[in-house]
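Subject: Pyrroline-5-carboxylate reductase structure
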Amino acid sequence: MKASIIGGGNIGMALTEGLINSLACEPADITITRRNLAALESIAGKGFKAETDNAKAIQDADAIFICVLPQQLDEALAQIRPAINLKTQLVVSVVTGAHTQVFREKLGENIRIVRAMPNTAMKVRESMTCLSAVNATEKDISLVQDLFNTMGQCIVINEDLMSAATALCACGIAFFLRTIRAASQGGVEIGFHAHDALTIAAQTAFGAAKLLIANKTHPEQEIDKVTSPKGCTIAGLNEMEHQGLSSALIKGIKLSSNIANNLYKQS
C-alpha cells in the first residue's frame, strides 16, 4: 500500500511507524508532508518521501492520513481537494473535533473516511484508539484496525462518541499521569526519594491497569482483594473519596469532552 501522511508531527510519525510495523508499507511507499524544511530533510534521511506540497503528496496514495491541528485542517483540505480521488483513496483523520461531515462537505459526500482517536502511548505500543467510519468498506476498517492494533488496542465506536473518546482516551493519558504524579508526591511525603517514589507509583499504576485487562474484571473486584476491615487501604480510599477524587475525575472528563466537541468549530 502507498500512504500519504499529511502533517509529519508526533502523531504523524507514530502512524508512520505503525504502517511499517503492521507490514502495510515499506518506507519508500510513504510520503510525509511538513512545512519545516529541516524536518523534511530528516524524514527523507530515513527512507521516506518528503513533500511540502500536500496535493502532490497524495497523487499516488491508496490511503491519506490527515494529521494536522484543527486550525490547519481547512487549509489542508483545500490543498488536497483538486487532487483527491474519492473512488480509490481512503482518508483517515486523527484531527481532534473534526467530524466526518466536515470532510464530506469539503471533499465530497462519497468520501471513504475513517476517523481515529489514538493517544500518545502509541510511541510505546500501548495506545487506546477509537475508530468511527463513514462510507468505508469492511476492508478499509480492517486495514485501519490492523494498523492501530500494532500500537496498542483498538475498538470501533459510533461517531457521536468520538468527543467522549477524545476525553477518556487522548486527554485521559494526562489525567492518569497527573494521578501518578500525585501518588509519587505522596510517596516523597512519607519518606521515599523522588525518583524511587515515581518508579513505585508508575509501576503500581501499570500493574493495576494490567490486572483489569488481563483478568477482565471491574476495578472494585480488584479493590476488594486489597481492602481488609479496619485496614490501611480502605482508610486511604475513603479519605480520597471524601476529598472528591472520583468526582473530580468525572467532572474533568465531562468538561474535556465538551471542549473537544467544539475544537474544530473554534479554530
